Amino acid sequence: MFFRRPITALFLLLVLALAGCVPVAAPADDSAAQPAPAAQAEDGKLKIALIPVLDIIPIFVAQQNGYFEAQGIQVETVPVKSPQERDVLIQTGQADAVLTDLQSVGLLNKEQTRVKAVYTARRPFPHAPLFRILAAPGSNIATPADLKGVPIGISNNTIIEYLTDRILAAEGLAPGDIAKIEVGAITVRYEQLMNGNIRAAVLPDPLAQGAIAAGATLVVDDSGYAELSQSVLTFTTDALAARPQTVTKFLAAWEQAVAELNAHPEQYRAILIEQGRVPQNLQDSYEMPPFPTRGVPTETEVADVIAWLKEKGLVTRDLAYTDMVDAAFLPK
Description:
- The protein is 39% helix and 16% strand.
- By secondary structure, the protein is an alpha/beta fold.
- Helix 3 crosses helix 11 (244-263) and helix 6 crosses helix 13 (299-311).
- The radius of gyration is 31 Å and the shape is globular.
């Protein structure tokens, strides 16, 4: 079998030749093989500072009914006693969100954009105003015209002063006819009005309705001026950048709570009484106000607030609509 060896050698030469035609794979590039760095996972936690007002009721409904838990997020509520305390928590990074108004959003952003409104929490409805201008019991004030030159108890540089200026102007009073006196604490303003120490004041519902039940006179309210009056859910820009999905889930839970409240208001009377500051003389009769569905303030509404802040010298820099509002977090 002497012919096997030459044939074997020939076969090996053929295999080697074919192997030489096959391209050699390049060494693996370790850097190319690594996956792109993943975005940092959100922790699903939010901390929101809340003043005890009607507007915050959907948050407590969402907590009670497990809507936040169903969205996979944790929401910590931080009770505060005043707008000043609330704003300090935002400015110092101790809260991710607040329920506030556009005037406060503008003031917080007067030097740089710190916060943005992402959802309209409340607006006036025809039979459910947010604020009322009242006259003291026994006074002869009955119409906006009767308020000419009468000092009205307000809190300066707030939505209450803004509404006083805008509503009375719309009712025919000239700027020089509108007189105001600072009475910052709402409860003190109520007492001063009811005692006759001031002849008129602006109060939020349900305290305003309680004052009417106790003898105060309704002069005008914001139910006819829905474009002027609203509260907004507002988040820090840091929270919006770091936890966008968590914010959207929060708003989805809020919407679910609003739908439940609007459909079954009487089931949540205990929350209304506890969180809404309903006066004793109204606790059996005061009705849950309706809450608006999905939306954000309009460009026209925001522009008027900015104009007012500038008129008063409270803000000097040019604030754009996008410095104040971001609709990108509304649930789809």
